[in-house]
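Working notes for the structural subgroup meeting. M.R. asked for a predicted model of this chain before we commit to crystallization trials. I am recording the input and output together here so anyone reviewing the notebook later can reproduce the run.

Input as submitted:
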Amino acid sequence: MAPVAGPTDTCVDRTVSYAKPCHNNPDPCGLKSGWAGDEYCLLPPKEGEGVQIHIGPKDFKDMSEVMKYAIKSGDEFDNSVAAHIPLTEEKYFQRITVQMRPGSHHWISSVANGKIEEKFYDDTGCGGSTGAGSLGGGQNLIYDNPPGGIPAPENAGLGRSVVGNSSLCMNLHSYNFTDREQMREIWINLYFIDEAKVTQKAAPIAMVGGLGLSLGPRMKKEATYTGNFTGDGRIIQMYGHRHAWTPRFAVWLRDELIYDSWSWQDSVTFNYDSISKNPPIMTANKVDGAVSGLVEFKAGDPLKFTCFIENESDNTLRFSNQVYEGEMCNLWGSTVGSGITGTFL
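Returned structure, recorded in token form:
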């Protein structure tokens, strides 16, 4: 089954995630690779402003190198791949941009302790070598946070660190539902901020739902999970992670709907701050939307999310990371103040 069409990008200011580039250049990096998706290539930061981490062929003229990253028609992979981070000392960054070729479902990053072999691993954590932090994640082909490198005033002191002499481990879920081979490739840019300017640190939203899912063919289910914040704070970003049989993913803080996503292929990421103008929530129109402005919470406030699962397949859906053969219902994001994590059956 071919995937449905993703959302139409508007390329407006303060947008975090996109399905397509906001330019008409078919090959901004001059790759001339011959593979679909050259328009997604990301040029590195200027010298001194940051670094780029690249996962993909180092030379498109070397076919042995190219075929390491090729995906045959009908194949699907949910494993991990490592790449060295070009830093010799700890640095802080405020902006991260990520771009992937089509056929990439999600990216979930972690940092390995030291430099590890640059290769694909069978698991999602590079052989258990991680544990030195994370750069974040997304279910988008294009991710830019903060958009254009301009933080909201209340987020000006936010920064994250990445250790030197380390490797990035990327859980890169990729699929090929086309009739030709595709290429797995991802570009990650980190833009530095002086450590002295870092006055705030983000906490995670990491809520993994559906571990006990068992939904028979032609059945529907509203899978709802709730966690409670243990302290005060504010939400600064969220996105929902799911697969092909969940057309809608929605989130409520207390009883207010604050996030509404209608595309599983490009599960939209929204920021919540004083300058981002998110598209309004219009559930009846089945379009992506979120509240705008600061989203503050108090200790004890519930955060609830629902996956509206419609199993139109001939299989029983269980918790697994296959686009059409399994489902997940995970909420990811970040806060200032208390984070919230948990697993749910």
